[in-house]
Amino acid sequence: MENPKHILLVSYVFPPYYGIGGRRWAKHASELTKLGYVVHVICAKNPFDKNSLWWDLVKDNPNIRIHQVSGMYPKVLVKFEHHFIQKVLYKFWITVLPLLTKGSFLDRAIFWKGTMLKKAKEIISEYKIKHVVCTGAPFGAMHQVLELKTWFKDIFILNDLRDPWTWGPNWGFADLEPKRMQHELRREAFVMEHSDILSVPNVEMEKHLLARYPQHKDKIKIIPHFYDEKELCVLPKSASAVRRLVMYGNIYHGVEDLLDKMASLCARYKNELMLDIYTDKKQHERTFKKHDALNVRFLDQMPARELFRKFDRYDYVLLIHPEYGIHNISTKFFEIIYTRTPMILLCNEGRGPQFIKANRLGVHADLNSMDALFESIAKGSPLPDYNDAYDISEYSIKAVTEQISGYFKQ
């Protein structure tokens, strides 16, 4: 007899594996247990010296049962600090891996298929599981997990595509040679055809898939980004003689020009404004040092609950989106809106800036208009008509997880 309250989640990156990629489904797993589910998780072993910021959320939950298996991927390719031996190993693996793979060799799931499927079959058989969720990137896991349908004919598989796959800028796809791209396109098409549901976090990704795979329109769903009100709070802003800006989290590739311009403007107005940046991408600190922006501090990342309790000391949240992210309305948008802190979004025009401006939630500037914006902020000019009553309740973690639970009843 099947056990509808036991589900399997396959996520290559999941706490304790360090990185932002584990947040989405760590949160959903935790919330699903509140709805009575037992979530069995298969994930890769953590190759880093530190644990995920969301490890505490899941490690002591008896209804989240984590099964770490070998990721079977060279550790030197996922770590950013390399000494002499690591540099030699790095060169070795980026030379050898293309000879062993057909698609993107930056997909960390390329070698874990056997260990992952073996563990998945054990769990499904023991607990009579009928519903499986797999999330990527890395994307290969979503292709691999569909092999479970060979052994379990009535298994229901929801594949959650967190990031763009073949049309995305990351994971080596922008520079992929045609033969390798064709391999990835075939895998993507296979996932579209054989998944019971293919979910994406935003409208732009949905539009892309609908245009490419119109025959599968009924199975493409949006599971949006969400905010977790347990991490957030609304605090009155403390007084300050200078304008206080904050950035937090990942700093995307492809924003170097915007960062350089921002660093020069921070230096120009070093007596009028300050900026705190909470990130593990400390390599960008040298850009601000180059411009002598002494009013900018790079600080360690911290759990969201701690960070947002510091928001009383910040007047604006600064966001920088690369060209491939101008249409993104990310988790950060909803978190920031909840705290009632105006946003400053730096990027080219797109759906993201339009959302902020249309709903009066902040201001937008591109590379050419940043001078005027920073001058206005430095002078203390207030944002026009900030909308502190914007309703985001449909994007709460509770509401979005209930949507997921609804799919398990199909």
Q: Mind explaining what this structure looks like?
A:
- With 410 residues, the protein is of the alpha/beta class.
- It has 2 domains: 234 residues, Rossmann fold; 150 residues, Rossmann fold (3-Layer(aba) Sandwich), CATH 3.40.50.
- 36% of the residues lie in helices and 16% in strands.
- α1 packs across α15.
- The residue fraction in helices comes out at 25-40%
| SSE sequence, one letter per element | EHEHEHHEHHEHEHEEHEHEHEHEHEHH
Q: Kindly, what is the distance between the CA atoms of the first and last residues, rounded to a whole number of angstroms?
A: 17 Å
Find the count of extended strands (DSSP E, 2+ residues): 13
What is the class of the largest domain in the CATH system? Alpha Beta
State the helix count: 15
| Morphology | globular
The CATH architecture classification of the largest domain is 3-Layer(aba) Sandwich
Strand content: 15-25%
Low-confidence region ranges: none
Q: Count the domains.
A: 2
> What radius of gyration results from the CA coordinates?
22 Å
Strand order of the largest sheet: 3-2-1-4-5-6-7
What secondary-structure arrangement, pairings included, does this model have?
Blueprint lengths: L5 E6 L11 H12 L3 E7 L10 H4 L5 E6 L14 H17 L12 H15 L3 E6 L3 H6 L2 H4 L4 E6 L16 H17 L2 E4 L2 H10 L7 E3 L20 E6 L7 H13 L4 E6 L6 H6 L5 E4 L4 H5 L7 E5 L10 H9 L3 E4 L4 H8 L3 E4 L4 H9 L18 H12 L2
Parallel strand pairs: 1-2, 1-4, 2-3, 4-5, 5-6, 6-7, 8-9, 8-11, 9-10, 11-12, 12-13
Helix pairs in contact: 1-15
